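for the record, two folds in this file. i put them one after another cuz i was lazy. first one right below, seq on top, structure tokens after. the second one comes after a little note so u can tell where it starts
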Amino acid sequence: MALAKPVDCRYSGTGVNVAAFIHISATASVSLTTAYPAQGAIFTATSATVPNSLALNEQAYLSIVQLNLSTIAGGAAQVTWFLAADLDGNAPITPEQTDAILDHDTDASGTVVRTLEIFWNRVISGNVYLFAKLDAGTANGFGALTWSEATVAREA
């Protein structure tokens, strides 16, 4: 599944200039089972899965998380996941979520998409980690996190 390239949206009105930049950060490919991994998958600036991936800023608006799954086997139908600010998952950013895998064909691939609406401020670390597990079976996949930054400048 191809993901969109980052978008540069600019608005200029009377006395105010706003620039919003929409980006994607991605994880490396991971193997999922019915247990959470000991360490989460980091959303990084350099990713083979999403060539235009960027590192998160110190402050960002996290808008969408997408889990792209392939080689789904063993009856996996749902993913339980959360985002954390630390590698061990002890500082969650989101509550634990369980979502159905959207898979409308027979190619053993699917996607989970969730809207977040979270203002992220680098408090613990500059990283965000994905923790995910399946309800049954196994799958491979990667996470993509859509986020934005905005700058506002007022004319004097």
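(here's the note) second protein begins now
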Amino acid sequence: MGGRTRRWEWLSVEPDERQREIDRAIEAWAVGSELVLLVDAAHDAGLGPLECRYMATESMLVHLRCCIEFLIGRKSTRATDLTARRFDPGWTAAPAAAVTALEALLPVLDRHLAHLTIDRLRDVAHWPIVEPVDAVLEVMVMLDTAMAEADAPMRRHFAPYVGLALQRWALHRPRLQGVDAPATTFTSRPFLVPLDDDVGIGGWVARLGPFTSAGLAPLWPPTEGDA
């Protein structure tokens, strides 16, 4: 069903295929939004106000890790994980400089995002911006080309997001050349130095009033298989 589908054409589709098409659109949105948000967070990490650049850097790194996981995968995955092979069963990330760079970057991102570790204080002073986003987009284009050659049904939903990310990156990238994002560690943020005050922890707790923690548990009840 290429292009825009008229209502009566859509209703003529078998219900099972209709549901599969809806699922494809949702999955394409989930991955495509990560890609577009990566591009926009990279812009803010490099060019926003200093206080906002720290937050934008962390956002950029989270979206970057999600995109890399999608493209090259993990050694162990769940059946519900969104991977490039789910979009194109025949996809294999071909050996290329961009793929090698992303494979090397993933464990670095893990150390800085997944755990509180001393490594966070020692490793990265500043995060490059242009190079990792370039690598993600290059491999995304490789995937789009493979999907087009395989006539993958997912492509009609996913390709617009790749195009939008490329369009926005074409606007952001020239201004980000030679710009790094700030480090994400606490020690790199001079405006987060604890203040000496006379109120104390007890005083601030009293000013805050009751915590609402008890309302959190029902939002995420434990489910089987959760770590």
